[in-house]
Write a sequence for this structure.
């Protein structure tokens, strides 16, 4: 049985992502209180895989997670895009009129602002490391009058009753998760996407030259993210995702890009299959 590290506890959205990606496989979860603990567990080989959120269509990129992947030299072996649906849940046998407080993770509260604002008499508390922790608190303490915002899985996991479904303000709310490992997998060219980390000389036109070269090979760039280099003010590493239909073009790019003078360093963070949006 494989051990998979997640940030959060059973019933959280990371758990849902694991359930979808590893559907049909036996696994157990290692619950981590932070992304740093998750990354370090994979680095120390305490687990077989890690599943880590990297960006959200509303909140944007989780920049520190790119730094963690680089710090521990972890490899991306897969990805999953999952729709985030929030639900209001409470200890069984209550109605919304009996609720005086809503608890959850700060981001979940932010993503459900319109619903919460429609109940001005209910106050909101955001002191939980993930949505499932709020659900577990209510269940464990049999709290009445308090509701949590969390996933459907959290309601099932902790025996809570859903009072309102899909209360998120924006329906097209997706989170992208990386599946990470200490070592790359042998994919025998069954991949069509790669994540790269570039360090480029701090000169005029350097980034433009790199991007123009990638485009000239016939490779599509789907994401670029700059991350500051510590102790080197105003210098950045660039994280780039590329997708291709012909792996030979990708191999050509890897060989030829190293000859560009302004490229200081190229690291392959992962080669994997392009994930698809999963709507539950």
């Amino acid at each position: 049985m494989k051990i998979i590290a997640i940030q959060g506890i059973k019933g959280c959205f990371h758990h849902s992502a694991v359930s979808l990606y590893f559907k049909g496989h036996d696994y157990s979860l290692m619950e981590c209180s932070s992304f740093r603990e998750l990354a370090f567990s994979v680095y120390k080989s305490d687990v077989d895989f890690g599943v880590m959120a990297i960006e959200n269509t509303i909140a944007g990129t989780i920049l520190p997670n790119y730094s963690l992947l680089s710090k521990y030299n972890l490899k991306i072996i897969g990805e999953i895009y999952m729709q985030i649906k929030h639900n209001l849940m409470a200890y069984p046998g209550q109605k919304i009129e009996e609720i005086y407080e809503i608890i959850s993770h700060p981001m979940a509260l932010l993503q459900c602002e319109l619903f919460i604002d429609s109940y001005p008499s209910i106050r909101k508390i955001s002191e939980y490391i993930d949505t499932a922790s709020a659900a577990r608190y209510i269940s464990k303490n049999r709290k009445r009058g308090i509701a949590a915002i969390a996933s459907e899985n959290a309601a099932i996991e902790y025996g809570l009753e859903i009072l309102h479904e899909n209360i998120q303000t924006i329906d097209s709310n997706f989170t992208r998760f990386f599946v990470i490992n200490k070592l790359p997998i042998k994919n025998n060219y069954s991949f069509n996407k790669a994540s790269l980390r570039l360090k480029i000389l701090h000169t005029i036109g350097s980034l433009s030259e790199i991007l123009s070269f990638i485009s000239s090979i016939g490779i599509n760039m789907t994401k670029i993210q700059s991350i500051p280099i510590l102790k080197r003010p105003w210098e950045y590493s660039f994280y780039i995702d590329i997708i291709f239909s012909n792996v030979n073009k990708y191999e050509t790019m890897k060989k030829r890009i190293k000859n560009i003078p302004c490229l200081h360093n190229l690291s392959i963070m992962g080669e994997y299959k392009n994930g698809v949006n999963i709507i539950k």
Summary: The first helix runs from residue 13 to 21. Residues 10 and 132 are 7 Å apart (CA to CA).
